[in-house]
Amino acid sequence: FTEKEAYQQSFNPREYLKEYYSMNDSKDGGNVFLTQNLKLLHKMFSLDGLRGNTLIDVGCGPTIYQLLSACEHFQEIIALDYTDRNRQELEKWLRNEEGAFDWVPVVKYVCELEGDREKWAEKQEKVRKKVKQVLKCDVTKANPTAPVSLPPADCIVSTLCLEGACKDLPTFRSALRNIGTLVKPGGHLVMLTTLGDTYYTFNKQVFSCLHVEKHEVEAAVEAAGFEVKLSEVQPYTVSDDRMDCSGFLGLVARK
Ligand code: SAH
Prior knowledge:
By secondary structure, the protein is of the alpha/beta class. It has nine helices and nine strands. Helix 3 crosses helix 5 (about 105-115). The model has no long low-confidence stretch (mean pLDDT about 95).
């Protein structure tokens, strides 16, 4: 199991971005992992009721793809992650600093899903304006943002985080209860989880992943006080030696 200290020490945000979030010019950007997840997020954030004032992104890493559909429906976003370097990499992009990761091809792809590829610059600015804070969090803590207490949000989104952060199913279930406290009653949880995966690699390093199945994620979400509204599996059939996942689960639930 990859402890959070290993994330802090050796998770290299630049290498992670390069490995998993680059697009090329071939069909669908040549990155099925990414485009499939963008389509799931687009679908989830198009559901009725997924709107409000505040959104919290739990375990954001150095990425913003998970905010591209979401940013159209919420006014203020707070991004949380455990490692200093991931938060710094994200802040670098938010400040539009030189050398920040180029998300433009990804932003364009999502704009195309939404029906207007030409709106990419506007959407990019929207994300930059709406992310108001980037804070440290630990999903294994009862209050993940301690010592800071955030007012409960209208929605939380968490992509590919808990299965990396939790060593076993009981820890996964308790992490869901912990992050569940960040959302208001009546608010939503939007989750993207790898199914059947035990590891992922980049930069010649291996990170462990908790092997979970759809029914286990749904049960954990319900036990954390949510009602599942949508739960959809996208099989991952690409031969990919960077990970051993069988699919991705997109899940929306209401507290
Ligand atoms: N959400 C991003 C990053 C996923 S990588 C994406 O979709 O690509 C997994 C992330 O979980 C890393 O950013 C890592 O720092 C974070 N993480 C690991 N342990 C954590 C913990 N205990 N609490 C919060 N985040 C944690």
